[in-house]
What we know:
The protein is 81% helix and 0% strand. With 208 residues, the protein is mainly α. It has one domain.
Amino acid sequence: MLERLIDWLLQTLLAVGYPGIVALMAMESSILPVPSELVMPPAGYWAAKGQMSFALALVCGVLGSVLGALANYYGARLIGRPLIQRYGRYVLLSEKNLERSERFFAEHGEISTLIGRLFPVIRHLISIPAGLHGMPLPKFTLYTAVGAAVWCAILTGIGYFLGLHEGALRSEEIHRYATWALLALIPLSLILILVYVLRRRRRPESSV
């Protein structure tokens, strides 16, 4: 089933071109169930075959990711907070909890958005608290784009590698390499968080 879906996506992506990458990744970055593992690897595969540009496919993937994230961001910003204020008590979300969450995201929204974009499920949801708590749009866009660029580059690179070394693009190969990439991102993310924490602790001392 997945192999047929991969074959279909390969042909469809080649037919719809770069706008199709933008549209599919925008859907993936919002709440629609379009896995990025089924979009960017085929783009990388066609780049290896000389049918697409790796760089342009990557830019389109990042652009689509940002557009989808902005849809979640504005949805949460426009309707999320009023809903929580009105109905949050029914799901144990008090105004006090909302304010505490808001303070946390005001202080750590950048690192939360960046790291969140690297991991499944979280990348679809991290835009919601960002919009809910009014994270500045330029910062949100920047850190979303950086995180999306890392993940899109990994997936496009997987497809490019498979396109050079394999006769066909297989779902199990994509899944295997994507899993390895996620496992590698965990310690790298922990190191990034550690550096972030250490820099924040040193900041008051340096300002004295």
